[in-house]
Amino acid sequence: MTTSKAAGPATPKLADFMCFAVYSANLAYGRAYKPILEALGLTYTQWIAIVALWEEDNQTVKSLGEKLFLESNTLTPMLKKLEELGYLRRRRDPGDERQVIVSLTEEGRRLREKGAQRTLVKATGMEADEFAGTQKAVVKLRDNLIKHAQA
């Protein structure tokens, strides 16, 4: 006995799922970043924390966690490791001892000169305007999904 494996037009394929496209693109980004970040001695999560601090230095752990979508139980050990590596420092906020302020060291600022982001923008094969448009679309997708999940 044989069964028909013909998929009708209403049967979605894996390649048709947006979630799979985003997931697999994330995996591809991870593979592309791996040799660059290994040369720097960093993980991807450590890298994005440093990038967020380039954008806004001297911010609270809470603020940084919100930007990176990370809980403090994930963020705190990672920041401790970055401090051990000499890329940042943590200190209590003198105005509110409950808050910890994170700031880059000179060595952390110098990582920007390594050009990892420029390398991977080029690796996407997209023109600058296409890259920017795709990034904005993915951010909109993420934000809408967060709103949906919170509703």
From TrEMBL:
UniProt-listed InterPro entries: HTH_MarR-typ (IPR000835), MarR/SlyA-like (IPR039422), Transc_reg_Sar_Rot_HTH (IPR055166), WH-like_DNA-bd_sf (IPR036388), WH_DNA-bd_sf (IPR036390)
Entries under Pfam families matching the protein: Staph_reg_Sar_Rot
Signal sequence, start to end: none
GO cellular component: cytoplasm
Gene Ontology annotations of biological process type: response to stress
PROSITE patterns associated with the record: HTH_MARR_2
Keyword Transferase: no
Subcellular localization: Cytoplasm
GO molecular function: DNA binding; DNA-binding transcription factor activity
Span of domain HTH marR-type: 15-143
Keywords annotated in UniProt: Cytoplasm, DNA-binding, Transcription, Transcription regulation
Keyword DNA-binding included in the entry's annotation: yes
Protein name in UniProt: MarR family transcriptional regulator
